Amino acid sequence: AYNACEPLEALLDNLIAQRITSGVQAEIIVINDGSTDGTAEMLATKGNIKVINQENKGVATARNAGLEASTGKYISFIDADDRVSDLYIKTVTNEIKSEDMDWVTFPWAKSDTNEIFFDVFNPIPSAAVWAYVYTWDCIDGNEFRADWQIGEDLDWLKRVLPGKKHKMSDQVVYTYDWDAN
After folding, report:
1. Per-residue DSSP letter, 73
2. Per-position pLDDT tens, the chain of length 181
3. How many C-beta atoms surround the C-beta of residue 74 within 10 A?
4. Which end of the chain is less crowded, N or C, counting CB atoms within 10 A of the terminal residue's CB?
5. Distance CA 162, CA 15 (A)
6. Residue 68 CB partners (closer than 8 Å, separation 6+)
7. Which of 46, 72, 63 is nearest to 54 (CA)?
8. Is the dihedral of CA 169, 143, 51, 126 positive or negative?
9. Which candidate, 10, 55, 3, places its Cα nearest to that of 180?
10. At 128, is the secondary structure helix, strand, or coil?
C-alpha cells in the first residue's frame, strides 16, 4: 500500500468480514510502503492482520516483503486501491484446490466500465500478479526484481508459471481501479 488509505480500508473491511463468513483461514498481510496519508494509523486500528511498515521502496520490494512474511498455503496479491468480490477468499481457495492446481488465473473487471478482461489464448493470460492465486510450490522461492518498477509482474510471472499445473477460472472476483494508476 502506498497512499491508498481510503480504498485500502474498504478492501480490508471486506477481507476481514470474509474470513468470518468463508470458513477459510486466510492470512492478511499489508505492506505499508512509506505512505504519508494516514495509512499506518488506519492499519493500527485493524485487528488480526499482519502489518509491515517500511520506507518507500516500491512495489517489487513490498511484494517480496509480503512473500517473506507469509505462512499460508496459497498466495494471492491484491493492490490497495482495487476491489475484490465478497466471495474472493472462498472462490480463489476453492478454485486452486479443485483439481490440485499450482496456479489459477481469473478474469477481472475494469473499474470505470466493468468491462471483463481475460485472454485465454495468451500463455500468460494476464501480466498482473493480482489476477492469480498460487501455491508455494509454484512460487518456488522466486522473488520480484527489486530494481524493476515497471514490468516486474510479467518478469516474475514468466519465471514462476511455466510448466506448472494450472487452470483458468471463469469467476470474476477482482476489480482493477483503472483511474488510480
Report:
1. S
2. 999 999 999 999 999 999 989 989 999 999 999 999 999 999 999 989 999 999 999 999 999 999 999 999 999 999 999 999 999 999 999 999 998 999 999 998 988 888 888 765 566 767 899 999 999 999 999 999 999 888 899 999 999 999 999 999 999 999 998 775 5
3. 22
4. C
5. 30
6. none
7. 63
8. negative
9. 3
10. coil
